[in-house]
Amino acid sequence: ILYRPEQKRRKAQEEMRNQLKKGSRVTAIGIVGTVDKVNDNTVILTMVDGSKIEVIKAAITEVFSEEEQKK
Length: 71
What we know:
By secondary structure, this protein is an alpha+beta fold. The protein is built from two helices and five strands, in the order H-E-E-E-E-E-H. It has helices spanning 3-18, 66-70; strands at residues 25-28, 31-38, 42-46, 52-56, 60-63. A five-stranded antiparallel β-sheet has the order 4-3-2-1-5. Strand 1 and strand 2 (31-38) form a beta hairpin. The longest helix has 16 residues, at 3-18. The termini are far apart.
């Protein structure tokens, strides 16, 4: 009985990660950045200071909406 909500949450997160595109603002392991490039299993994020880091897609926990990105 407890597995169904967890399955729904995991599926929603997987769909969110699969819809990443260049310019999306995301949070990955507590780090906020903008997607610069999407690879098969990783994403390259650009930080505020211009530096770039590569993270595994599974580490992305949140994608900010268009309205949140404009703030």
